[in-house]
Amino acid sequence: xxILDHMxxxxxxxxxxxxxxxxxxxxxxxEEFNPGGSIKSRVGxxxxxxxxxxxxxxxxxRLIEPTGGNTGIGLALASAIKGYKLTLVIPDNxxxxxxxxxxxxxxxxxxxxxxxxxxxxxxxxHDILKEExxxxxxxxxxxxxxxxxxxxxxxxxxxxxxxxxISAFICGVGSGGTIAGVGRRxxxxxxxxxxxxxxxxGCDIKNGIFTPHKIEAIAVGIIPPFIDFDQIDHFIDVxxxxxxxxxxxxxxxxxxxxxxxxxANILAAMKLSKQFKNTENIVTVAPDSxxxxx
Length: 294
What we know:
alpha/beta, Cys_Synth/Cystath_Beta-Synth
């Protein structure tokens, strides 16, 4: 048994509704309790396991991936244990704490110029692949292992923890794996469960409109191919200042120190709660903790 055997089964907690207790109840699945400290550890491990089963990897294979950090840590965990080399391309405006953590795992880091717009790291990887053939690109943005990790595990965990009593699931859309996988699993449980996306103000992910923003890991400049927008009932927009205020509040009042995209998810869940009664449950995820953003 090693650290990878302890992936998943993260806790879910109720957050006091900041608007009014008469509105829907808000529950948050704390993914910082995964090895590697985020929800993306599930994705990194699933992509590598599936690539191994498909015969795509051998000892010493070199992987490359565009990532803001969390998927990279998941890939780094699995690569270190399984004997693969890993190069990550990260926008140069992303958290230095995450970059320094990745270097500790022995990962090679390349930085893309965020001033070229959302998705700079994705474009840089594609440019590298045109010139160099040594890399294996698992591509979290098109790899079905990404949503499958949430369909098979995260979604089922939520169903068990909530005892089938779920009115809505809401989360940000970056690679799209969480909302696609969890959403599909919950719709199988009950087609009446609402699936809601979260995006920064000024972005319209469904229509491919991305504007510069400061909420890492969502609205990253692509429309994920495995997202079924017919499955998403609607999107809620959030503002970075409100997100930061809520993060501070949750740390002081709930002793829950969450990351930026986690704050976006919870803020959107609170806004959504106004459409529900206090007998109805709204579930979201906190992809990581705030320790990576100090």
